[in-house]
Amino acid sequence: MRRALTLMGTSVLRTGQIVGVDSSGDFGGCETVGRALFFRGEPGERSRLEKFPINGSLEITTGSLVAMTTEAGSETEVKETAEESAAQPDQSEKEAEKAQEVANAEGEEKAKEQDKAKEVKEGKGISRYLPGWLKKQKSQGQTSPTKEVPPAEEAVSKETPDEAESAPEVNGHAEEVEEKEAAETVQVKERDAESHSNASADTEPAKEEKEEKSSEKSPEETKETKGEEGAEELKKEKEGEVEAKGEGGEGQTSIFTSPLRLARKTKMKLVVCHVTLLDGTDFTCEVEKRAKGQYLFFKVCEHLNLLEKDYFGLIYKDSHEQKCWLDPTKEIKRQIRSNNWQFAFNVKFYPPEPSLLTEDITRYLLCLQLREDVASGRLPCSFVTHALLGSYTLQAEFGDYEPDQPRPLDYISQLTFAPNQNKEMEEKILELHKSHRGLTPAQADTQFLENAKKLSMYGVDLHHAKDSEAVDIMLGVCANGLLVYKDRLRINRFAWPKILKISYKRNNFYIKIRPGETEQFESTVGFKLQNHRSAKKLWKVCVENHSFFRLNAPEPPTKARFLTLGSKFRYSGRTQAQTRMASSLIDRPAPNFERTSSKRISRSLDGAPVINITEAGRDMAENGRELHSDSKSPMRVHGDNIYVRHSNLMLEDHDKTQDEVLKHQASISQLKRSFMEAPPPSPPQPNQWEKRLTSSPATTLRIQQQQQQVTTEVEIEETVVIQEVSKATKSGFVTVTTSDPTAEQETRAEVEEEAAVVLVKEAKTAKQESVSSESESEEEAEYHPNVPVSISHTQIPEENEDEEEHEKNEVEAVEQDKTGPDAAPHPAEVNQPEAIARLEEECGKVDTEATEDEKVEPEPEGSTDDPKMLPDEATNGVSHKEEAVTSLAEEEEQPKMNGESSVLEAELRPQVICCSEPPVVKTEMVTISDTFAAQKTEIATKEVPIVHTETKTITYEAAQLDGTGDGEPGVLMTAQTITSESLCTTTTTHITKTLKGGLSETRIEKRIVITGDCDIDHDQALAQAIKEAKEQHPDMSVTRVVVHKETELAEEED
Amino acid sequence: MAGLMAGFGHYTHAVVRGIPASLVKEALRTSASEADVDLDKARREHEAYVEVLRTRLGLEVLELPADESMPDCVFVEDAAVVCGDTALITRPGAESRRRETEAMKEALKGLDLNIVEMTEENATLDGGDVLFTGREFFVGLSKRTNQRGAEILADAFKDYAVSTVPVLEGLHLKSFCSMGGPGLIVIGSSEPAQKALKIMQQMSDHRYDKLTVPDDLAANCIYMNLPDKGHVLLHSTADEFPESVKVFEKLKDHMLIPVSNKEKVKVDGALTCCSVLINKKANI
Fold first, then answer.
1. I need a surface site. Which of A148, A453, A972, B73 has the fewest CB within 10 A?
2. Where do Acidic residues bias regions lie (chain A) (predicted)?
């Protein structure tokens, strides 16, 4: 099997996915590599799968997804993971706990007991590989997992039994909360405090118990830590709720708590919201008076059955009749500032490549928006284009042209295609309509979008302004940057990479421009807006668009340096990169939706009954729209579409940074998880996607504050990583880590993202260097039992500079030492069988990696033999495997992907870990050893305590995280990417908080990764990075410098 | 299913115009040079040019008769901008040339194009200042073209971004640049040319490759993408610009057709100036 896997290389991933699809029917003869990967393990797995209520295919997918998730987990996933963990915590944790016997037992012990039986059966099976949420599903389906959850979470969270009913959601929420929490260690701490004080008693005790246990047995500790994490998550959730209560004042949904939950609380005053949808219909729903924007938004998306919701938003009119975007993180009431609860659902970010959207329903909604844009003149286009777009609209809404149709012009003239529509245009539309015969509605939509996206004003948000000479101009914000128009002419353009800073002051709006090749100084360009409000509005739009289209992950509101001034506002949603990744994992059957076309059509219907007839005829005879959509669904089920899209994605991501890719993966994995969680056949529920929103970076601030309060020790560490990856030939990596001198402990839980990035880079580079973060994470181990996964990463490719390697090794060693104790606990957790399975998988992964890198030699067998593999190793191995799998699936061509994926996983895990407290989710379970670890470095040996077992699905993620992040919950504070011609600089700031005993530690790490072509002068880049880092944080010190050079990889990448 | 903005370089028709004898003495010149134009040579050149379009490339060539009262009438490019099935009849910056548009308008009407006329008094635009890349327009703001003219062009071709580029030296924007293929800008190496290229690159959401030729005038060439011939590039001869031609010869995928332009260049006539290219099979 292993060999086969190895050989499979890139294809493996796909296979895996495909397998998932195929396997729906029979798991038995999985010959495909993918299957091998997933199922090799043991019969137990199969049984589990079978047990799943969902189709086999779904389950399988989940498996693959899981891998993905773990990988992706880092950023977005963090949230998801948290969510998952939250959701799963009961089950997964229980299982894990059972396996470990360390019942972290928070309130879940009962459930665990129940589950234990299951676990026993399943534990060895696929479940390990499956994410916790999957397990949850299973457990839920089988047992009543919800019951378990509610006590801990709900009690604290105020959730009512209703929540239990909607267990998945609750879990999801909880997960979200967890994620957030994880991200925001501070919150965790607070949670602890709160939890203790509040209803969290359950959780706290669990922690305590865990701690005790850990003291008893080091190996168990690891598990405990996991449990703690879970507990933490629970606590966090609780806390989150508490916070929400505190913050919101009452029961408002805090970011952490899911909006839905809040809604359920019956106490709140309800308000009726009217939302105008894109088809012109009105959607009415009740929300709590204090509900946040995202609650309503989720409700709308749920109503629309929309998963790819990140491109959309809600608009309200402020007191000045200005249209504003409803901020999902803020209370609706405080935004609208009036009693007019009237909103419009609109496209907020126009995807530059609509074909990359995953679902037809998303494209359909985009079409509706664009039709409106075109008809209103907001999106100007020529006569011919009007006609062409109109003809596609006709095809989509009415199907093929009906020659028999009497007086077709009658109904056409009732539709609005253009602001200056005339007979001539209508005739042209009809003429073109005839040529579209045979196009399905979805195809017609696609054609519509393919043409619309080329329009120069597509996705450009215009704002009136004046230039310095008081000349009227328009500022257009779009995916690529800021456009300046005078009348219809584009007179200037500032691409995002050229913009260093965006600010506003009073009614002035400024952008600071990066100096050009020949210029020495930055320049600032100012524009005058009509008033302060419009300046701020423009600024916000810029921040959001920059974040969405340019960043891998949203920048936390806190310390953003890139777009600062005045407001702390930041984009809180997912970035395009994240949402793409997430949506690429969507594997629900294409939802049925009616293209009842907009108001326009309905009007036409009123006027001309003919239309109705036509429609009916269409539907009956030639696949109606619904039929069409149905027809598509099967394809999706097969997964073909998904994979194809995948490849597209990859292509598209060519110019993207590794980080982005990682993030994508993370988000994808999250999505998958969410989906998995959701009841299988049923239409997707608002899931982790939504939840993600909850886990917005904003929370971090709170967390920090909380942490400080609780905290005894706060460590701040900054890491600057400068990476240079040359597409052409060489790539170099320079990593500079700054640690705050004050912080003694290096609990570095490097933020997941960072780790991910590094990992990715590494992977790309041939998996050369382990990420420094990993070592850091080890330190975290103190808090979190998670063993450092870093070891595996530690493998340093030949290319790495000796010095750097030494440094890394040292660091790692240190970390290992720290982690060592922690690690011990982990091993205990791991079950042998699982370990074996994992090992096998790992081996497989390793093999694949080895083949790719040639560096790694699979020793998995040995590891497999030893159930007691170091946790770190195990985790590493797991992560690798996952990575490999994911990478294979995702990137056929790019070895980097693998690395990235691994990174993501690692990141995710740490986040989960962050929760450190309790119990519930094991997410992290480290699993078996990695061949890598053994091979890679001594560190592995050190760190590695013997780990065994662990059954939980989450493990994968955890493992990586553990390795890299070491169980530290990291919060990604900031991520920004600045691209110039030759360099791409990504700055990630992670804040990790750890709670151990009464101590809380906060570590802030900043990592700067510079990626560029071979031409980069490493020394100079490094010097510059260090200099800048010191300037920005005089009180921090550079602790680590890593330079990676990649040669072969680079070529491959290209 | 050809869609919007498909088929850059596809042409089926060309509109050209004869050379009046008045060109020798009365044609506008930007340069101080008094080099005499040899009318016969100029006419032979032009015939050869038209012959390439008609015979070698198989375009349907619509040849308008020369008008002695319009010495510059051979430079039909300035009189109209055709993109897709829309034709913008310009208002040339040189007063003496305004009437050139009349014949052009009639010709284009005959081709069943949507005619948009630039009638505003304060708007001027020479087609030589309009560079269409296939995805967007760049309009040179020159002695002949002003902001208002560019605005009207933007209004006529709403699908496309229209960016303005200051033309500090030379007559027109296309006096030192042109398209050499989809996404390929041929650019002269003079400082003003390079500066203009930088501006264009900054203003564009799209990425362009550039082909830099030593001589600005050689950077004006005609690109077509024809059904049975693929990429076709009409460029100046090695006789005139040997170094630049060496650069063109690096375009391995192109059918390179050197076209002599020795005489017309004396009155600022470049290759693109002498024809209006049209794709009658509309993209849609």
1. A453
2. 849-864
Kindly report the average pLDDT of chain A as a whole number: 53
A1034 vs A81: CA distance, rounded Å: 34
Residue A705 pairs in a beta bridge with: none
Secondary structure of A303-325 in HEC code, one letter for each residue:
HHCCCCHHHEEEEEECCCCCEEE
Letter string b/e over residues A123-136, b meaning 16 or more CB atoms within 10 A of that residue's CB: bbbbbbbbbbbbbb
The yes/no answer to whether this complex scores an ipTM above 0.90 is yes
Which among A355, A373, A378, A382 is the top mutation candidate for probing chain B, defined by the most B β-carbons within 10 Å of its own β-carbon?
Answer: A382
Name chain A contacts of B151, Cβ cutoff 8 Å. 487-489
* Tens digit of each residue's pLDDT (9 = 90 or more) over A770-826: 333 332 222 222 222 222 232 233 222 333 333 333 333 333 333 333 333 333 333
List, as residue ranges, the binding site of B: 28, 72, 77-78, 97, 144, 267
**Which helix (H) or strand (E) segment is A971 a member of?**
strand A970-979
Distance, in Å, from the CA atom of A1008 to the CA atom of A934, rounded to the nearest integer, reads: 29
Find the helix packing angle between A167-183 and A658-677, rounded to 10°.
150
Structural domain tally of chain B? 1
| CA-based nearest distance A487→chain B, Å | 7
Residues of B with CB under 8 A from a CB of A: 1, 3-5, 84-86, 114, 135-136, 139, 147, 150-151, 154-155, 157-164, 202-205, 282-284
The model's pTM is: 0.53
Q: Is B1 part of a structural domain of the chain? A: no
% of chain A residues with pLDDT over 90? 16
Judge contact between B179 and B223, C-beta under 8 A. yes
What is the CA angle A1053-A555-A915, rounded to 5? 95
Q: How far is CA A913 from CA A226, A228, A755, B222, in A?
A: 6, 8, 14, 64
Contact A105, A94 (CB under 8 A): no
Residues of B forming the annotated binding site for substrate?
A: 28, 72, 77-78, 97, 144, 267
Task: Report yes or no on B4 lying in a domain.
Answer: no
CATH of the domain at B53: 3.75.10.10
Distance from CA of B163 to the nearest CA of A (A): 4
State the residue range of the domain holding B257. 13-278
**Is B216 inside a domain boundary?**
yes
* Stretch (H or E) spanning A717: strand A717-724
Find the range with the poorest average confidence among A151-165, A381-395, B60-74.
A151-165
Task: State residue A1006's pLDDT score.
Answer: 61
Higher-pLDDT residue of A551 and A831 is A551
Beta-bridge partners for B116: B88
The highest-confidence range among A61-70, A550-559, A667-676, B239-248, by mean pLDDT, is B239-248
- Give Rg (Cα) of chain B: 17
Determine contact, residues B157/B86, Cβ cutoff 8 Å: yes
Q: Please answer whether residues A955 and A922 qualify as being in contact, where contact means their C-beta atoms are separated by less than 8 angstroms.
A: yes
d(C-alpha A468, C-alpha A435), whole Å: 50
Section A427-442 average pLDDT: 91
Residue A150 has, within 13 A of its CA and on its CB side, a CA count of 15
Residue B250 domain-assigned (yes or no): yes
How does pLDDT run across A675-724, given as a tens digit for each residue?
444 443 333 333 333 333 333 333 333 333 333 333 222 222 222 222 22
